[in-house]
Design goal:
A: alpha+beta; 48% helix; elongated; B: alpha/beta; 41% helix; septation (chain B); CobQ/CobB/MinD/ParA_Nub-bd_dom (chain B); cell cycle (chain B); cell division (chain B); nucleotide-binding (chain B)
Chain lengths: 96, 272
């Protein structure tokens, strides 16, 4: 750092990115260490849930949206399944 | 019986080969009969860092396939006479290495050497797995950066589950953390992971901290292991790490930001 830097806006406080690095590492490693000893069940859970829904409604596998957020204290698995229009459902029901 | 030490990291480009060269040279300087093996078959570089690239005739693959004897492939260092180098092959691929072949080489080297250093390739594929398989101790080279710390954690998991010691349920591989490319000034500014943070996350004993230093590039340019540059901070830091490895107590140096004088504050300055 030289004297010129004092004029280049160095004085404005930047958020310390190192603490973000530490936090992110702690979370990701906590999950990866579990995965080493135990199989990650979330992908399987997702498949099973979609299969259950498909038993009742004819769904388009391309219209299934899965979001997983691995957090420190809690992870969320959000599955969005687009259900077909009622007419399509009736057709399936009629076919049975 | 020789101690087998793997220098590993998972991630590439963090300083495994630089550290292997420095560490092997440092151990040899203390009178330990040391051999350093390049496991990066296909991408050999230890020969360049050690400055013996023009003396390579045979390599580890030639020995495994029976085309050369081990003695013919070993290169004696001209600076430190207790040091030898076993180069990797440049033309073959990693499949040329076999566990039995490596086992035989390590067994034979154990008769003549005190320390067998294994310079691991990056990744967790065959070459890296073979480099760590026979290890008694591991030096895990880590940069203060998220991807490097994550990969180090991963490689620690591999050491604990897939090494020979783990498979045979013997005492675990002794793990050492070597932090390289550390910049105390950036740590002070909050831009770089702190030493304590890395230790807390990986929770293995700290063997040494090598500061980011221009002398490392200079050393590789000339094929001189940086530990032979006793003036440089990196060289001194490696020498300290070797001392600690051999059981000496040494306080960590170069981990605090240098207090700059008025002159340096005004005109800047870089680490030697």
């Amino acid at each position: 750092m030289s004297w010129l830097d004092y004029f280049r806006g160095r004085r404005q406080e930047q958020p310390a990115s190192a603490s973000a690095a530490k936090e992110r590492l702690q979370i990701v490693l906590a999950h990866e260490r579990i995965g080493r000893t135990r199989e990650d069940f979330l992908p399987k859970l997702q498949q099973d849930l979609v299969a259950v829904v498909a038993r009742y409604v004819a769904i388009d596998p391309g219209k299934v949206n899965v979001n997983l957020d691995r957090g420190g204290d809690m992870s969320t698995l959000a599955i969005e399944i687009e259900l077909p229009a009622p007419s399509a459902v009736r057709m399936v029901a009629g076919a049975r | 019986m020789a101690q087998v030490v793997v220098v590993t990291s998972g991630k590439g480009g963090v300083g495994k080969t630089t550290s292997s060269a420095a560490f092997a040279t440092g151990l040899a300087q203390r009178g330990k009969k040391t051999v350093v093996i390049d496991f990066d078959v296909g991408l050999r570089n230890l020969d360049l860092i050690m400055g013996v690239e023009r003396r390579v005739v045979f390599d580890i693959v030639n020995v495994i396939s029976g085309e050369a004897r081990l003695n013919q492939a070993l290169i004696r260092d001209k600076r430190v006479d207790t040091l030898s180098i076993l180069p990797a092959s440049q033309t073959r691929d990693k499949d040329a290495l076999t566990r039995d072949g490596v086992a035989k080489i390590i067994e034979e080297l154990s008769k003549d050497f005190d320390y067998i250093l294994c310079d691991s390739p990056a990744g967790i594929e065959k070459g890296a797995l073979l480099a760590l398989y026979f290890a008694d101790q591991a030096v895990v080279v880590t940069n203060p950066e998220v991807s490097s710390v994550r990969d180090s954690d991963r490689i620690l998991g591999v050491l604990q589950s897939r090494s020979k010691r783990a498979e045979e349920k013997k005492d675990p591989v002794k793990e050492h953390l070597l932090v390289t490319r550390f910049d105390p000034v950036r740590v002070e500014r909050g831009e770089m992971l702190k030493l304590e943070d890395i230790q807390e996350i990986l929770s293995i004993p700290l063997l040494g901290v090598i500061p980011e230093s221009e002398s490392v590039l200079k050393a590789s340019n000339t094929g001189t292991p940086v530990i032979l540059d006793a003036e440089s901070m990196a060289g001194q830091a490696y020498a300290d790490a070797v001392s600690r490895f051999l059981g000496e107590e040494k306080p960590h140096r170069f981990i605090e930001a240098e207090k700059k004088g008025l002159f340096k504050r005004l005109f800047g300055g870089r680490a030697a």
